[in-house]
Amino acid sequence: MGSVRTHRPVLCFLAAFSRHIDALEWARRKTTEAWGPIALASPVLPFSETAFYEASMGPSLQIQLLGFERLMDPAAMVARKHEANAWEVEFRDSHQHEEPRPLNLDPGYVSEAKLILASTKDRDHRIYLDQGIFAEGTLYFQKGQWQSRPWTYPNYRRADYQQFLTTCRDYLRDRYRREKESSSR
Fold this sequence. Notes:
The protein is α+β, with helices and mostly antiparallel strands. Helices cover about 35% and strands about 30% of the residues.
């Protein structure tokens, strides 16, 4: 029988996308208020691998990837997804954009071994967590690089995304190292 151990905290991750720069700026402010300072932010990147979101979000989508300074318990992902969904509704209701969904917020986390994204949609490869939220192992880190799965979204296969995720992973590993050093003093 294996021993039950608590999980190390992980890096809170968010992918925010919209065709409106004000929506991305609003998302940064909102998440910072709730989740703490942003440690890492990608440039605003084009989101062009799929037309799936055009009907609800419009054309010419842009995305920004964020990693937060405060590490999180992976079990908090259910609450983070519910917060993100509520913020999407809040932004929609408080701004005058023509699309039914002007902002999409996809939270998850980065560990040393993987990128996990939260979802409200059940699929064969997703694990049910709680309160209508599923976890998807989107990428895993092996042999010095990110590896995709058959279901990995095309944008997460891009080199610029994976470079950002490597920066997140390095940041997390450095945090673990510094915490270990300070606790051994």
